[in-house]
Amino acid sequence: MSPRGRAPATTSPAAAVDVRLIRRERRHTLYFLGDLRRFSAVHLDTEVDMGAVLRHRATAAHAGRRYSVVSYVLHAGGRTLAAHPEANAAIGGRLRQKIARFTSVSGKLTLDRTLSGQRVVLAAVLPGLEQATLDEIQAVVDQYRDGDPETMPQFAGTRALHRLPAPVARAAYRRASSPLARRAAVRGTFSVTSLGHRPVDGFHSVGGTTITLGVGQIAERPVVRGGAVTTAPLLRLSLTFDHRVIDGAEAADVLADLRTALETFGAAEDGDTDATGASNGVPDDALEGLPR
């Protein structure tokens, strides 16, 4: 016993721990996150009835064409941001901040890929989305998803950053991404990130652009139509905006217009959505067997 009548403290064995340097392949993500410290993020979300999109998707699948949900979101985002030039913008500078408003819409899509054996986030930038067709968008998405990031020329700059000493790479990253004149080409004018392939309903992300869209899973959920409870395939669509560039009212308008664009997709051609937005006639297998 100790002088105070207490049993002496015992020392437990140290827990096993494996401490390593961060892999080079993740450095570009750290540089990107470091640049977001001044971002003033505000988050919104809404539920989108994806019945029209799923019907179009199922019909295309029967005809041998495959479309990802993110391609529809990029398509809708391109048209919507073109109609909201205040949101299709970026901010730069420190003492004298400036706003750049872009005349074209470029969408940044995040990709879950493996580089040198390390699972990483890579980004594809799709320009000209205000005019691109769904087929053109899907072709670029397929190119990025099916290509080898170890050899694709689009990721040559990222691979070069990994080979440089960290201080040099960080400076090179800032020189490439900070100027407003290069922002659309490097980061896009809005971002789309998706976790809909997993049981994730919604999430909020900051993609380094004034508008970032977060795409969760599509799931059958109860809704009220005409005073009666039914079900509909709903998507929780989140929107994060940079309050330095736009205010909440503008961001809410963007989100509302995105919702309308997705809920009425193809309506002008085939009239498959009724006046209330109800998603009648969605094939039973529309949620199965197709990539998100």
Brief descriptors of the model:
disordered C terminus, 292 residues, 6-stranded mixed sheet, alpha/beta, single chain, 33% helix, 24% strand
Report the strand count. Answer: 8
| Shape label | globular
Strand order of the largest sheet: 1-8-7-6-4-5
| Strand fraction | 15-25%
Number of helices: 9
Radius of gyration: 23 Å
Oligomer: single chain
Distance between the termini: 65 Å
Low-confidence stretches: 269-292
* Average pLDDT figure: 88
**How are helices and strands ordered from N to C?**
HEHHEEEEHHHHEEEHH
Quick one: biggest sheet? Answer: 6 strands, mixed
Approximately how much helix is present in the residues? 25-40%
Structural class: alpha/beta
Report on this structure:
The structure is a single chain. The chain is an alpha/beta fold. Helix content is 33%, strand content 24%. It has helices spanning 27-35, 51-62, 69-83, 134-146, 156-163, 166-177, 180-187, 248-263, 267-270, and strands spanning 41-49, 89-92, 98-101, 107-115, 118-126, 190-194, 211-225, 228-242.
Question: Secondary structure elements and their pairing?
Answer:
Blueprint: H1 27-35, E1 41-49, H2 51-62, H3 69-83, E2 89-92, E3 98-101, E4 107-115, E5 118-126, H4 134-146, H5 156-163, H6 166-177, H7 180-187, E6 190-194, E7 211-225, E8 228-242, H8 248-263, H9 267-270
Parallel strand pairs: 4-6, 6-7
Antiparallel strand pairs: 1-8, 2-3, 4-5, 7-8
Short description:
By secondary structure, this protein is of the alpha/beta class.
